Amino acid sequence: MRHSFHAMMDMEYPSAASIEAFHSKIFSSWPACRRTFPWRETRDRYSVMVSECMLQQTQAERVVPKYSAWIERFPDAATLAHASLREVLSLWSGLGYNSRAQRLQLSAVQVMDKFNGEVPSSPLLLKTLPGIGEYSCRSIPAFADNLDVAAVDTNIRRILITEFSLPETLPPAKLQRLADAVLPVGRSRDWHNALMDYGSRVVTGKSSGIRPLSRQSAFKGSRRWYRAQIVRELINTPFMTVAELQDKYGECQWGLDEIIRDLVVEGLVESSAGSHDSTGGRVLKISEG
């Protein structure tokens, strides 16, 4: 049964009784919906940050082996900060969006330089790190520290819209205010995990008909796909020439030169007219920082 809630210009909050009923519904359903993941077994803020970065736009089940391998190789910010980008990207391979791995490493560098090696617990400070946005700056301390902050991702947005009969066009700021209002004090960690599991098993995108704010396009043959292919090629070899990449991916309709230029600008790839190429063309390799 949905609770009545009107999304007006001046935000009206649900009643205390409605909030209590919502809490009861989510927590009572949790035993049947509960999932187990390795990042739920730790309170280490760095490890939670790694999991939250990996889980962005990637299914949790796919993240599990990558997360475990990552924590084994890079158990703390110091180890990650001093690793080569090639190794970082190699371990990240398969998760997509290689720039996320790069930003995670840059975050580790800043954690070492600005926070004495300890990932901060403050959402305001977390948001200063590369790749940490509105959701992650709240979810990291919620899961690691049980901090009383509400984080709204695609799953939680879908649940709030469904349970409180809200329009899908409700601005994110108003949805955040609702999430803040219904957060059970002192149970932030359990609350967010229970909501995630409820959204995964009960109020799914298919059952609710609620579309995410952004949708991924087909991957193979997309601009993202070509970016990933180029990075994968360079991870597995000391260097490649642009001519070699053009021979393999010349059919790219997105402009191979433009994609390569973007990768260089972003710092993922280095370009030079090095001595390795007898034709005098440009040589590419993974950035050495």
Automatic annotation (TrEMBL):
Cofactor(s) needed for function: [4Fe-4S] cluster
Molecular function GO terms recorded: 8-oxo-7,8-dihydroguanine DNA N-glycosylase activity; adenine/guanine mispair binding; iron-sulfur cluster binding; metal ion binding; oxidized purine DNA binding; purine-specific mismatch base pair DNA N-glycosylase activity
Residue span(s) of domain HhH-GPD: 54-201
Pfam families reported for this sequence: HhH-GPD
Protein family (similarity comment): Belongs to the Nth/MutY family.
The protein's role, per its UniProt record: Adenine glycosylase active on G-A mispairs. MutY also corrects error-prone DNA synthesis past GO lesions which are due to the oxidatively damaged form of guanine: 7,8-dihydro-8-oxoguanine (8-oxo-dGTP).
Example of a GO biological process term: base-excision repair
Protein name, entry field: Fe-S cluster assembly protein HesB
Top-level taxon of the source organism: Bacteria
Coiled coil location: none
Record's keyword terms, sorted: DNA damage, DNA repair, Glycosidase, Hydrolase, Iron, Iron-sulfur, Metal-binding
